[in-house]
Every structure is written in C-alpha cells, then in structure tokens.
Specification:
Chain lengths: 529, 462
C-alpha cells in the first residue's frame, strides 16, 4: 500500500490483486552480484566478453522447436536479474535482495500470442517449454516433435552504450549503508517539524539475451539505479503533510550529481513538505496553468502517450485514425526517444530485439506515428518503433513508452510566467491516470504555486489537473526554450511495469480544469498575452 | 496443483541453515503458483500466458536485526548462498528491539493449516479446468458485452486471469505449515459510441470458486456501464448530496484503511493516531477486516508471518476500535498481532495489509436511497484516486463521472467534473447505507449516500 504515492499509475487492469509489480523488494548482495557479473563475463556489458547466458546452440535448437509447428514468428527471452535495495525508514536501516532468472518463450500465429516461461536454464526444460508453446500456437500443425528448419542466429550490435558506473558490485554494502544513513540524518535534521522520513536506494541489473525466429540474438545489460525520499512534517497546530522526490536512471551512482544528487532529492522532499504546511488551498476552475520544465512531462505521458500505443490505438483510443491530422496546437512536437543516455526508458534494443529509436509522434501539431511493437505494427500496417517492452522474462512484450517529451519552443520560461496574469505554476506532480477511450486524464500536483500578476507567489496544496488529452494539447499556447528530460523514478503500469522518462520545456496550457478546495476562479483576463 | 513435500522440507532445511550461519532466528516463505492469463480481442484470443512460478523468501534475524532476501532458484546451493549473503549483510542493519518473528505469544493455530475448509479459499477446479474451457470463458467475457448493444464498439482490454498458489512457511519458533489458495477473475473495459460521442465502461470481478465465475455477467455489466454513459455532459459547480456506488466505495475504503495501519499510526503518519475510542465516522458506519470470512478471497489460515488470521472490527458505529497489526507493530504497541502481515508472494518481505475488508451493509434498498434525494450526484467512476487523495491530510479532489439524480431518479450521465473534500469529514457525512454489499476482490462496500459534497463543474459561461 505504501507504494501508492510512488507509482506513476495504478491501473485498474491489475484486478486480480496478485499484481504484476515484480520489483517490490530488493537488495544487493556483493557475493551474488559477483557471481552474476564477474564470473560470467558481463562486467564489460556483456558485449565484449561474448558469453551468452545460455549457449547459442541451445538457443538455436529451442527456436527451432518453437517454429517447428508453423508459428509466424517467435522468440526466447533469457534473463538473469539481481535487485538490491537499502532503505532507511524511521531512521532504521534495512536491506533486501532479489535474484531472478528465467526464460520467456513466445510464439505468434495469426496475430495471436502464446507465452510461457521456465525458471530453469536446463536445455531440456527450455526445449520442453518451446515445444509446449509451439503446440499451443498451432493446434493441428505438423505432427511430431521435429526440430523444424534450422534458423541461424546472428549477434546484433548497436552503437548505443549505457555505461553503469560504478556497477553495484563495485561498492561495498557498508559504503551504501553509510550513504543512506547520511541522507537519513540530513532529512531528520532539516527541520524541527520533521516527524518521519524514508530514504530508499535501489540498484537493479538485468542481463538479457534474446533469440528470435528472424535470426537475431541480442545480448544486453539493462541497469537502473533509483533513489527516493519522503518526508512527513507536523506543525504546532497538528497539521500533517508529506512529500516525495526521487530519480531513476539507466546508469550507476555517478549519475546522481547536481540537481539529481541524493542530497538535493532529500532537500526537495523537505522543501515540498514545508511548502504544504504553509500552502493555501488550490483555486479551482478552468484557467491557465504554467507547467515547469521536466517532470511535468508525465502529464502528456498520461493524457496522450498511452492513447498513442499501437495496441490501444488499434482498439479505439481517442488517437485512432489521426495520422496526418492535427492532434495538438501548432508548434507542439511530441517525441518518444529510447536512445538518450542515462534515462530510465532507454535501451539499445527493445525486448523483442528491435533497435531502439527516436520516434516523432506529433510534429508541429500533426500526428505522425504511433508506438509499435512487432505484433501491433503488423496489425496496424506500420513498422515497429522499437517500443516492445517487458517487465521481465515473465511477460510477453507490449507497446510501451520510453522517454516521452514535448520538444522545446522559443520563449524564455521567465517570460511565460510574466505574461500570465493569474493561474497556477506546477513544478511536479504526484502521478495520475488516463481513460484512453474518452481521453479523460487526471494528475495530482505535488508542488505548485499561485501566479499572481505575472509572479510566482504562495505555495498551493490539493490541486489536481484534469481534462481531455487532445484538448490539453490543443490548448498549449506558449512553449519555453528550456527543454528538460527528467530521469523519473516512477514506473508506468499497463498489465506490467516499465521504467520511463518524461520531459518538457516550461509550457503554458491556456485553459485546463483545476480541482482544489480553494476559491472558484473564473478565467476572465487569464493569460492573454 | 499438488502439495510438494520437498518445498516444506526446504523451508525447514533453510531455517537450520540460517541457524548454522549464525542466525538467532529465521523465517522462510516459499510460494509455488500456477496461473493462466488470457487476453481476448475481436471475439478471438489475443494472448495466452500459462505460468508456473516458485521461489523462496528468507528473513534472517540476528542481534535484533532482520535482513530479507528472495530468489526463484530453489536449489539448495542457491538457497545456501542466499542465506550466507543475508548473514553478511545483516550486520549493517539497525538493531530494533521490536524486530521479532511470530511465536506462541502471537497465537497459534491449533491444527494443520490446510485442515479447516472454512479457513481455506481453494478450489482445485481453478487450476484443473481445461485451458480450452478457460479460453471459452475469456471469449464469453467480451462477446457478452459486444452482444449487449450495437453501440458497444470494442474492448480496450478483456482479460481472464486465474491463479492457484501453495504457500510453505516455517520459522525458528516452531511455527510451520502449508496451505493452498486460488482465485479466478475477469476484467474488461468497453467503448460505446453514438454519433461523435465515445464513452468507456468497465467491470471486473474475482471469485474463489470456479463455478461462481460468470464471464457473461462481467462482460454485460461493463457494456452496460459504457452505454449508460453515452450523452454524458459536465454540470455546473454545486454542493449536493452524493450516492456512492459499491465499486468506488471499495476504492475509497482502501484509502481509509491505509491510515488505520499500526505502522502508519506508530510512525506518526496517520491522523487517526491517538483517536482510539473516539468518534471518527457517522453512527451508521462500521468497517471490519475479516480474515476468517468463509470463501473470502483474502481468507487464509495464517498471515504472512504465520499468525492466525482473525476478525478485526476497526470502526464500529462510527467509533474507532482498533488498528491493523503485524508482530513488529504489536510488540511496539504492546498488543497482540491482528494477523495482518500481508505478503503477495516469496518476493515480498511483507507489510501491514487487509484480509477481507468490508463496510457493514444497512437495510435500505439502493433505489430507496436515491428516492430520498431531490437533487444529487451518483458517483460511479473516479479517476486516479491514488493521486487525488492525500493519504495524510485526507484532502481529496478527484475527477469523476456518474449520474445526476433529480427528483429521486437517475436523470442523465455526467462526465468532466471533480468532487472535492476530506476523507475524515467524508466518513462523518455518511448518511444512508444500502443492503447490497458487493465484493470486488477482497474488499466490499454497499451503496451509500453522503450529505453535501462539493462538485467542481465547468466554467459557468460554457
């Protein structure tokens, strides 16, 4: 339950309760990490050392079994993962670790996907799983358990590299515990009103091999380092408030400097909580909202990005049949890019072996593309955009966002605020949800301020933004020149979870529905420039 | 599925192994599960996933420090290396006098965990039913909705899911046993189209007996929900009584109960702290967590650390009676655990959670509740509750949809509005409670009404 505020999105789709959130608890074990990384040659990123998790001969044979009954295509997804976390909660340090391995086996026939996995790396177990999936996919296909045609596998290479420095195993547990302890002390001593604080540090390494029926093998190491901090404060009147800040990066600890430093994340969670204790209730109504650069990109991730994922487009999202048509205001360009160094939604190859790419979804207001994996690209008559992602070997791929952002404009952020007579200024949000059929979305505001006479003034609390994705995009009237793509700590949930980045420059949405407990504002003079 | 004796043996072996590695105490939790997920689209199968999953989670206790680790590699070599690793990391933990494993003082179940059918929610049929029958059920989910009305255009998702799980548990205080559980459910979201208007409607339900799984009902209700919303429009801002559907009611209850976790209370994170015995809700409001509910999705003989599950009245007739405890918070609070250590599977170290949570039903028909309202709002859809409710202050502002009630009847569908208020005030404003307690998974709520609620509508000039 405590993950509620941390997650970008909780989907009603996970209805059985045994949710798809596999990455719940962790910690790092140098011993096991060494086992995984050093002895198996993945310290160099897996590429140079050349050793696959499972030998190429076994993969080749398994792909043969998988295709023997006449599937259209198929793949094997071999994974070894280690997740390690160190947490300070209530000033108490604890660790947790998770070690996972398995092989996911998929066959696709006539657009239907059949999927199973085995936790075993024994060749016979893998062949058996491949045969089972092959049979399920093509009932009444050729009889017998023949190995089918031989598919030659070729290792794919990429110019994209994502160095993880340092690797989790390169630092001792003690060293990491000291780091988290010092950050805990920092939070508790920041203000006399602090009544509770949590700091959470997690490192994930996923070594992935993919073998496809189209003859490709992929060997890549995916990494994610995450840190977040939450702070609770109580004032003399008994008011209680809490706030959160965090980052997640496809990089090692060295990435966390400057604005992304651990200390800054702790300080921001403290500052936000202080703000809330002093905040006024957010005004409500339809009026201009200035969105600060960076993390607010999640608003467009929710309100638009999901509706552009090919499976949802195909099934009738409100972005269906919009290619070549205006879906945003002129000047708005929306990009989903999986190639940006350090960002959590980046990778060299997606989880079905397609090279990652920068995909322009909306160009100057016109819808240009959707996010496709192999299955949905075929159904839509489009090309895969390298957007087929999976949470782990336990899941079949789905079209997912990577790092989604609105491209920069020409106006300085100061000018945007100065030109807004009355509205709110949003720095960060606490997550949200979208109904892709109607396009209705909502976002909670975690740090926001009033804009009065062109100036940022008092902090606000309890604000939510909601509306229709397309209308929000069409209502953008000024775009700043300060694009910031944010290493978001959140996970996007859609049956399974995926790390994603979001971004945008400072941007004004001319009119959007703001919910809050404060006074009702009418948009009389608003932001007319 | 079948009981696997080797897993019970492994759980016990791991305890001994931990002791040999220097532990003062240890706990092992092995889950072994089978599940099937079928996605359907355009009256055909879109995806079939069949999954077997087993793994072990170990809590290693030494010098009042507990380290946790888990793995899906169940070879003894791997478990041994997991435990050795925990023994090395445990030293870096902060000692905490309340770190404890379950023992006699937390209460013991005086029989085999799997022996009392009333405490086991496990229907072997869920795992054993033929995959072809499951595929047929999954297709029924979508077809029943598509056939409900020509206005129903297609499903955004249509998913059948089942899961059967065997848990093997042991700790160094001599608590050990195993038990099975299973559930089967379906969820679907439709779009309905009329002219330029496109609306969504969803429904999902999970049950513990295969024969109770009714895909036709789930599909039809989702389709009904979508079609009923056609023609929805915003309304102007107002303050009116509100009727809450059981579906949204259960979602709101999960936020209220979050603040009733002893962990949140003891850490000063919940405004319910210090209010035991005080009036926190309307006199008609009673909230119960019942871990022994016969046939409940959350019914188990024991919780995630081996403590017998029990019935815990949390709020009775508006008075705060108890919080939810596990062994750690119980020791800290000098009380007994309420058996609420929740644990999803072997990967989870666990935390405080509910078992079967419900708001006690009243004796009024939902239609009678509506009939008493001359102008009001019927809440059936809420978006992003987790981002719209501040779990600390209880303040909420939630984009919502539903229906306008006029002269005691549903008048027209409403979308594009938000409801605002505070959960604590909301509890006190509960008015009439219906007799239609409805379960969604392991949480249930009847239809109920509240006194005035603030509705944020569109700009009045529009």
């Amino acid at each position: 339950m405590s993950d509620r505020k941390k997650r970008r999105e909780i989907s009603r789709r996970e209805f059985l309760g045994k949710s798809a959130v596999g990455v719940t608890a962790i910690t790092l074990s140098p011993v096991l990490m060494d086992l995984l990384l050093t002895s198996e040659g993945c310290k160099t990123g897996g590429k140079a050392a050349g050793g696959l998790i499972i030998s190429e001969d076994v993969l080749k044979k398994a792909v043969g079994f998988l295709m023997a009954k006449g599937a259209d295509f198929g793949d094997l997804y071999v994974e070894k993962a280690i997740l390690g976390s160190i947490q300070s909660d209530d000033r108490k340090i604890s660790t947790s670790s998770l070690i996972e391995k398995g092989v996911g086996v998929r066959a696709v026939k006539d657009g239907k996907t059949f999927y199973a996995y085995t936790a075993s790396f024994e060749p016979d177990e893998i062949y058996q799983t491949a045969r089972l999936v092959a049979d399920a996919a093509v009932q009444g296909g050729p009889a017998g358990a023949g190995a089918g045609s031989i598919i030659n596998l070729t290792r794919q290479s990429s110019n994209l590299t994502f160095p993880i420095t340092p690797l989790p195993a390169d630092r001792s547990v003690e060293n990491k515990v000291e780091l988290v302890k010092s950050l805990s002390d920092r939070a508790w001593s920041a203000d006399a009103r602090v009544v509770q604080a949590t700091q959470f540090f997690r490192e994930i390494i996923r070594w992935v091999n993919i073998a496809t029926s189209s003859g490709k093998t992929i060997d890549q190491t995916l990494g994610l380092t995450e840190f977040y901090a939450s702070t609770f404060m109580k004032d003399a009147q008994g008011n209680l408030q809490s706030s959160f800040d965090g980052r997640g990066a496809y990089a090692g600890r060295d990435f966390f400097t400057g604005d992304n430093s651990f200390a800054n994340i702790v300080d921001t969670s403290v500052k936000r909580t202080k703000n809330l204790l002093e905040a006024v209730d957010s005004p409500r109504g339809v009026f201009p909202v200035v969105l600060a650069a960076g993390a607010n990109g999640v608003i467009f991730h929710e309100s638009c990005g999901h509706g552009m994922e090919a499976d949802l487009v195909y099934k009738g999202s409100n972005f269906k049949d919009q290619l070549g048509k205006p879906t945003a205001a002129k000047g708005v360009t929306l990009i989903d890019d999986g190639t940006i160094p350090f960002l959590p939604g980046s990778f060299a190859f997606d989880d079905e072996g397609t090279p990652s790419q920068r995909t322009v979804l909306i160009e100057d207001g016109i819808q240009r593309n959707y996010l496709c994996d192999l299955v949905w690209a075929k159904k839509m008559g489009l090309q895969s955009t390298g957007s087929g992602r999976r949470q782990s070997f336990r899941f079949a791929p789905l079209p997912r966002m990577r790092n989604t952002y609105i491209d920069k404009g020409a106006v300085s952020p100061q000018d945007i605020v100065a030109a807004t007579k009355r509205g709110i200024y949003v720095v960060d949000t606490s997550g949200g949800q979208v109904d892709v059929i109607t396009g209705n979305f909502m976002m909670g505001v975690s740090e926001g301020y009033l804009i009065e006479n062109g100036k940022i003034t008092r902090p606000i609390k309890g604000a939510t933004l909601s509306g229709m994705g397309v209308q929000a995009l069409k209502s953008i009237d000024v775009i700043g020149n300060d694009l910031l793509i944010f290493p978001s700590p959140g996970r996007c949930g859609k049956f399974q979870t995926a790390p994603v980045g979001v971004g945008m420059p400072t941007t004004r949405v001319r009119s959007i529905l703001v919910g809050g407990k404060g006074e009702a504002w009418e948009d009389k003079e608003g932001g007319a420039r | 599925m079948k009981e696997k004796k080797e897993y019970m043996d492994l759980a016990l072996w791991a305890i001994e192994r931990a002791k040999a590695a220097g532990a003062d105490g240890a706990e092992t939790y092995i889950s072994d599960s089978e599940s099937v997920q079928i996605n359907v689209s355009e009256r055909q199968v879109e995806q079939v996933q069949a999954v077997l999953d087993a793994g072990i989670g170990v809590r290693f206790l030494k010098d009042r420090k507990i380290a946790f680790g888990s793995s899906n590699d169940l070879s003894r070599d791997s478990v041994k290396s997991l435990i050795d690793d925990l023994s090395k990391k445990d030293v870096f933990h902060t000692p905490d006098e309340f770190n404890v494993l379950a023992g006699k003082e937390s209460g013991l179940l005086d029989k085999d965990w799997s022996s009392d059918p009333d405490l086991i929610s496990y229907d072997p049929q869920i795992g054993e039913a033929a995959i072809q029958d499951k595929i047929k059920s999954a297709i029924r989910l979508e077809v029943s909705g598509l056939d409900y009305s020509p206005k129903v255009k297609g499903a955004m998702y249509a998913v059948y899911q089942d899961g059967s799980s065997f848990v093997y548990f042991a700790n160094s205080n001599g608590i050990a046993g195993w038990f099975p559980s299973a559930g089967v459910g379906g969820g679907i979201e439709f779009s309905a189209v009329e002219g330029n208007d496109q609306q969504s409607g969803s429904f999902s339900k999970t049950v513990t007996r295969f024969r109770d799984f009714n895909p036709d009902e789930i599909g039809r209700k989702a389709a009904e929900n979508a079609v009923k919303m056609l023609g929805a429009k915003p309304i102007e801002s107002c303050e009116v009584p509100m009727v809450v559907s059981p579906e949204i009611g259960t979602e709101m209850l999960s936020f209220i109960v979050y603040m009733l976790s002893a962990d949140e209370i003891q850490k000063g994170k919940s405004l319910f702290a210090g209010k035991l015995g005080a009036k926190v809700g309307a006199a008609s409001f009673t909230l119960i967590d019942d871990g022994r509910l016969k046939g409940g999705l959350g019914t188990r003989p024991v919780d995630g650390e081996g403590v017998p599950q029990q019935t815990t009245p949390l709020i009775v007739d508006g008075i705060l009676k108890n919080f939810l405890y596990d062994c750690y918070t119980a020791k800290k609070g000098k009380v007994k655990s309420t058996g609420n250590r929740a644990r999803g599977d072997y990967q989870s170290r666990g935390g405080i959670g509910t078992t079967n949570l419900y708001m006690k039903q009243g004796n009024v028909k939902p239609e009678t509740i509506m009939a008493g309202i001359s102008k009001g709002f019927y809440l059936t859809v809420a978006l992003g509750l987790f981002a719209g409710i501040d779990p600390v202050s209880g303040d909420f502002s939630i984009p919502a949809a539903g229906f306008m009630i006029e002269k005691g009847k549903i008048a027209f569908p409403v979308r594009g509005i938000s409801i605002g208020g505070n959960l604590f005030e909301f509890l006190n404003s509960v008015d009439k409670i219906g007799d239609d307690l409805t379960w969604f998974g392991s949480t249930a709520c009847p239809t109920f009404s509240t006194k005035l609620i603030k509705i944020g509508g569109v700009s009045q000039k529009k």
